[in-house]
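Researcher: I'm preparing a figure for a lab meeting and need a structural model of a single chain. I don't have an experimental structure, so a prediction will have to do for now. The sequence is pasted below. Please return the structure as tokens so I can convert it later.
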Amino acid sequence: MLDVRRLQVLRAVVTSGSVTAAAAHLGYTPSAVSQQVAALERQAGVALLERIGRGVRPTAAGRLLTEHADIIGRNLAEAEAALAELRAGRTGRLSVRYFATAGAALIPPALARFRREHPDVRVDLKLLDPDDPLPEVEQGRADLAILVGPSLPVRDGLHLVHLLDDPYLAVLPDRHPLAAKTVVDLADLAEEPWVSSEPAGPCLQAVLTACGAAGFSPRIAVESDDYPTAQGFVAAGLGVSVIPRIALDSPHPEVAVREIRNPRPVRQIHAVVRETGLEQPALRGLLAALRDAADRRRD
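Model: Understood. Here is the structure written out token by token.
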């Protein structure tokens, strides 16, 4: 295989017309330049230069390799420029995995800010089951994932960023007796039929753990795995529900939404990235935008 550095030395000799001039341009000694050209000739198996007076000129093989050295030089310069842009966070691509309510509440404002600050960085978004997206990040299929749960383990090589504690609120039929309260004790819902708003997973576990602490297990009358449908069942008087705050930006007009206490179920929302990914300015910028979006949800 031909040595790229030696090709560039040959190019300098051919361009300048002499070994001495090429050496001065490259900062080498003439002897070092001659040695590099001789080594390249051994690799090529053919003479690359011929002497003319005090200078040199390329043979047919020398002209051929010089032309390719020009192309390689341009490509290397373009690669170095592209790498500098990537290191500076001005270009590149980020792959993000998220779950539905984070997509609605956190991703849009974060992505709007990120695009203003990094307009040439592409962000690929993919909706994912919130149960365990960590392997997507661990195995390099995603640069960042948003996770949800009451608590999350930290795995080697991963960096966890807490974004938001998202409390659950009681969702009641608007004429329910408990709707007259401003705050509902979780135990007040113990005898009520429940409309489940969560599929099995970390979000449901946060609710069940809180109910257990209040001394009961909810009696599920209707199962639903999305929040708007659960609100519809509640509005129809089929039960009560608990739904995370960030999923209640647009409550059903026929439900009452109340704070919960003793205890208050809470799910924690985190972002996770590979520790090595934090070297990327663009990824750090996206994390900052997500933290800002989460901070605004707390205000």
